Amino acid sequence: MIELKGFTYWYPGREKPALRQVDLRVEEGEFVLLVGSTGCGKTTLMRALNGLVPHFHGGRVSGLAKVAGKDLAVSSTREMASLVGMVFQEPEDQAVTTTVEREIAFGLESMALPPGLISRRVEEMLSGMGLSRLREAFIPNLSGGELQKVILASVMAAHPRLLVLDEPTSQLDPVSAEELLNLVRRLHEETGTTVVMSEHRLERCYHYASRVIYLEEGEILFDGDPVRAALWMSERGKPYLPPVARVFVRAGWEEIPLTVVQGRRLIGKAVDGMGREGCPPHPEDCGGEEVLSARGLSYMYPEGKEALRGIDLSLKAGESMAVLGENGAGKSTLVRCLLGLLSPTRGKVRLLGEEASPDRLARLRGEVGYCPQSVRGLFLRESVWDELLLSLSLRGIEGREAVDMASQHLERLGLEHLAARHPWELSSGEREMAALAVTTVSRPRLVLLDEPTRGLDYLAKFRALALLEEMEREGTALLAVTHDVEFAAAVSKRASILGSGRLVAEGPTRDVLRGSLFFSPQVSRLFRGYDDGISTEEEAVRFLRDLAHKRLVRFPRPFDGEVEGR
Amino acid sequence: MLPIYRNKGTLLHSLHASVVLLFMAAVVGGLLLLDHPLYLLFLGVGLLTMMHSADLVGESRPYVRIGATLAVLVFLLNPLFNRNGSHVLLFGPRLPVLGKLDITLEAVLYGALSGGRVFSLVLAFGLAGMLLDPDEVLRLLSPSIWRTSLALGLSVRMYPTLVTEAQRMKEAQMARGLPLETGGKWERFKAYLPLWTSLFRNSLERASTVAESMAARGFGGKKRTVWKKSNYRRIDVLWVTLLAIPLMTAVVVAACSDGYSLFPSPDPLGKGFSPWAGAGISLPFLLVSGLSAWWRGRGRKYLL
Amino acid sequence: MKAITRVGLNRSPSSVVRASGKQYDAIPRFLKDRWILRGISTNLIFLATLAGLAYLGLKGVPPFQRWSVNSLLMAVAILLYQFFRFERAAAGPRELALLATLAAVAAAGRVFFAAVPGVQPVTFMALLTGYVFGSESGFVVGALAALLSNFFLGHGPWTPWQMLGWGMAGLTGGLLCPISRGDRRRATLWGTRFLVLAGLLWGFLFGWMMDFWYWISFIRPLDWRSLVAAVGSSFWFDLFHSLGNAVFAFLLGPAMFSSLLRFRGRLEVVWEKPSWENNPVDVEGGPSPVEDERPSSTSGRCLVDVAEMEVNEA
Questions:
Q1: What is the Cα–Cα distance from A308 to A330, expressed in whole angstroms?
Q2: With contacts defined as CB-CB under 8 Å, which chain A residues touch B135?
């Protein structure tokens, strides 16, 4: 199906190749998972599979490439399109037409299929993908998850032999992400289409893949089945494993489970006969000054839709809080109300001691750090470095001091290599990290993050976490609105779940998360019944190490996971 | 900002786009081709009843306002320049550029008639805009000018995304401390500049991602088919024959017999007016309002 | 093997792919080029239509003697002609997505500034597009932006005229397009100057076109005095429009140029080693359902397909 030999590729005007001497052979019907840090060449490799690289992006190529029997050197993307289907990250930037039906037909029209056949294929896709209900829906009205499904349908309508998915769920909430991945699995099972995919949510597809390929700096360093890949990565401290496997690797166990079921079986065997441990005590009130509070906050959209109902919330300096909830629960509206960007229909919001309003926000001049959901809106300057300096100068910090602060900050986030880059040329994960840097560089007293972990891989997430924890210790208050439960569990001491405009559960993070089957991180599901107090990876690793010691299951192996990487 | 089209579920909103298009074309044709005040009156009143039947009275207010402004302008300008009438109402002074400023009855009448015409035209276009789903119209056009209709469709789709993005961007920068809402107009304008360039660049970025996705789905070949789902219902043929064709015929018939002139003195109203054509013009409107009322009640299940 | 492509519309799709070094025979290409012949005939039909309409109008043949009808028909003819030209132009995915986006940006800007009298970002955007991407692109962006923004602001008898007016602005924006293809700094400098001037001019021209429609349709008698009055009635609006354009061009021009020029940049594809022919590897593969429209390879050299973009012989 795929045959690459010594494939090397340079983007136009770049000295360093994006892909280096790639040799790859994929057989019909395989399910290949590509892993690697952001910017490692996954996207480029995928683009090469249907000739977008080099024919659409330009640049220099050497080596041989053949996909589905076509030589890429001489086949246009257009010829490849009917053989290789491609789904990208951002659902909003892929749709071309205005209605679902026409979107599905779009590719087929471009391939000049007869209209009769197009009608048949459109019907087939609508019913096969469960989209019939949306047949005539206006594309901008669809949610990200629905839209991504439509794009997948549009791509599959051509009956491609190879399906390429480039982090298709990075912009989706967990429920739609799960739905999409299940759909991909079903397509693979039922149609035998070869699938090549890259994905951050490894817990949902890792064990399913028939092959895992690890890329670094444009080179394939590992290529093999998932179990061997887990072992290989654990030996080299690469963190691209599902959380279940990762905690076992980090705790130094030799047998590595890939799913929650397998993991529970392993723990069950080891725990056998041992008493359960009690929950650790709740975090205490840190007693700082109140920086953000909402009393009876309600908000109604001008169209009359009620988004928030009677929300009470308070955040003190040095405190951290996560608000969880599915898409459309009103999370972003909540953040915008808290910032004073929207004025509440009822209730009061106090931001750093005064009533929140756009005016108040303007007078605060950067004392509040706000990282919006779509971070592209944050960048105004030509380089990440200039952007940091702008943030600092808006806060009133200039000159030597600003330069020092900016460079320290970049170092802390491990982003030195991005300083001179143009914000628009970064990969989506890098851009997310750069946005975090821009919002936190001036050491704001309050940080509000709206979905900060979209498109971040494990390593980046870890660095972000470390930074936020440190800032918290220094007295910054943090409010993160997210649907990433793993992140919420690790970053915040308190959590609440927002459902249809109300805060339905509020309390210490571990209590809130433990009480839920779906809003709980994979690790806490792993230990449910064994130790209900565990909700973060660190705790899980500690537990497993202890377990290994007590039972002498295996000797722990040193793990250098976090230090590794660029 | 919401698009002006919104399906309000009335009979007129439920008709096929081509029916509405043909009907409105006939109305616009009539407004441009006919001179007899009675015909124009019928068309104008017809439009007002249509506005009512389509439940668009509130939404039409801006059109009424713009139409009235233009109409007043026309009404005022015409008598100033028109000297052709024989009944002088007011002998004005001799002005350097305009010449002798005599206001004649005929010119005033012509101004009123033209004003009414402008007003009705604005209303007709406005109604068409509010009754036609842009997407349906695109669908009608797509076989003949598919590239343009694809581009238009893409920009219709991009528009809401851009507007939301602009809003979000403004908020993010305000939170960051950019003085967007403070200071004088000029300061604010200057503070917005980097935002706009950034937004512009952002949209270019989007364009290239969309382009990549288009290319990946095979767009860009010389050959291309156009898939058009036929959503004609059999009853649409009935609507065309019942509403659009009679109105068109009546307009053509009226235009052929119409010889009404205001100058040098107004013709009697009977001249150039054919009652049959007049009836032909007003009947479709009556039919529309009658059927719409029925539709609102029980007619819905019989009429589609 | 090297091919350089330029992103932008080109007039005849028959010049789609030319592998470098290919020999052309002595017969001039334009004679072999059916598209150009067809282009000539379209131009003739278009010109004949306009001339015919004008003739019938002057002759007083009903219904063409009514200038309200006649001018509307002319406007529609020009619009259709320009759109057909765009249909014929070989726009690939990049161009199409870009033009649609620019139209959406212009429309959003127009809706945003709707409350401020006279400020019309569409004029500026159309001129900008015309200058960087050529006349056809400028026309399409101007016309589509007018149509699109009226979906939000409201359609009226002015819609076709606004489409025409802004389309024409874009068309003239393309006059200096060749300069924009040269050195980037020079392109930006001259582009900004040109945009300021053209913006000042088009503020008035656009207003006059609207006034002209209004005058020819509803004001009688059609003499120069009433024309001056109709045109003069909108003087302040036009002045604001014109100044607004200049301010936009002066303040935003350079930054927008640099991003547009970067977007347009040259696309170069180099495949260093010859392809599979010299290194046969067994790869299974069925025939593609899409029939190939081009000969796939020429004698061991790889032909770089650049879709519908123009390939400059190096």
A1: 7
A2: 98-99, 138
Chain A contact present for B269, CB below 8 A: no
In angstroms, the CA B248 to CA B254 distance is 10
Q: Is residue C124 part of a domain?
A: yes
B75 in C contact zone (CB under 8 Å): no
Which segments within chain B are labelled E, that is strand?
Answer: 88-95, 99-104
Q: Flag if A55 and C305 touch (Cβ within 8 Å).
A: yes
Tokens of A125: 């896709």
Q: Is residue A529 part of a domain?
A: no
CA distance A38 to A463: 13
Nearest CB to C281: which of A3, A74, A112? A3
For residues C228 and C231, give the distance between their C-alpha atoms in angstroms, rounded to a whole number.
5
- Pair (A402, A515) in one structural domain: yes
Domain of residue A140, residue span: 2-224
Chain B residue whose CA is closest to A361: B175
This prediction has a pTM of 0.86
Q: Is the same domain home to A203 and A331? A: no
Q: Give the chain A residue whose CA is nearest to the CA of B152.
A: A97
Instruction: Give C75's DSSP letter.
Output: H
Q: CB neighbours (10 Å) of residue A89?
A: 23
| Shared domain check, A193 and A54 | yes
Rounded CA-CA distance A46/B46 in Å is 60
B2 three-state secondary structure: coil
Rg of chain C in Å (alpha carbons): 23
Say yes or no: A81 and A218 in one domain.
yes
Smallest CA-to-CA distance from A46 within B205, B206, B212 is with: B212
> How many domains does chain C contain in total?
1
Task: Test B63 with C63 for CB contact under 8 angstroms.
Answer: no
C270 alpha-carbon distance from chain centroid: 30
> For residues A316 and A465, what is the distance between their CA atoms, to the nearest angstrom?
19
Q: Please give the DSSP secondary-structure letter assigned to residue B244.
A: I
* C152, part of any domain: yes
Q: Is residue A495 part of a domain?
A: yes
- How many structural domains comprise chain A? 2
Residue A383 domain flag: yes
Does A213 reside within a domain?
Answer: yes
Q: Which domain holds residue C119?
A: 2-269
Cβ of B169 within 8 Å of Cβ of A394? The answer is no
Q: Is B65 exposed, middle or buried (0-12, 13-18, 19+ CB in 10 A)?
A: exposed
What is the side-by-side order of every strand in the sheet holding A346-351?
A: A306-316, A290-300, A346-351, A354-355
Residue C220 belongs to a domain: yes
Option in B74, B118, B204 nearest C101 (CB): B204
Q: How wide is the angle at C-alpha B90 spanned by C-alphas B89 and B92, nearest 5°?
A: 155
Is any Cβ of chain A less than 8 angstroms from the Cβ of B167?
no
Q: What is the CATH number of the domain that holds A341?
A: 3.40.50.300
Domain membership flag for residue C113? yes
Q: Give residue-wise pLDDT tens across range C48-66.
A: 999 999 999 888 887 888 8
For residue C205, give Cα distances in angstroms to B141, C56, C209, C219, C278: 30, 26, 6, 20, 62
How many angstroms separate the CA of residue B226 from the nearest CA in chain A? 6
Q: Each residue's pLDDT tens digit in chain B (304 positions)?
A: 457 787 788 888 888 888 999 999 999 999 998 888 999 999 999 999 999 998 888 888 889 999 999 899 888 888 887 777 777 777 777 776 666 777 888 888 889 999 999 999 999 999 999 998 887 887 787 777 888 888 998 998 899 889 888 888 888 888 888 877 777 778 888 888 888 888 898 898 889 889 999 999 988 777 788 887 766 778 888 888 888 999 999 999 888 887 788 877 888 888 888 888 889 999 999 999 998 888 887 777 776 6
User: In sequence order, which ranges of B95-176 are alpha helices (DSSP H)?
Assistant: 105-131, 134-141, 146-176
Contacts with B191 from chain C: Cβ below 8 Å: none
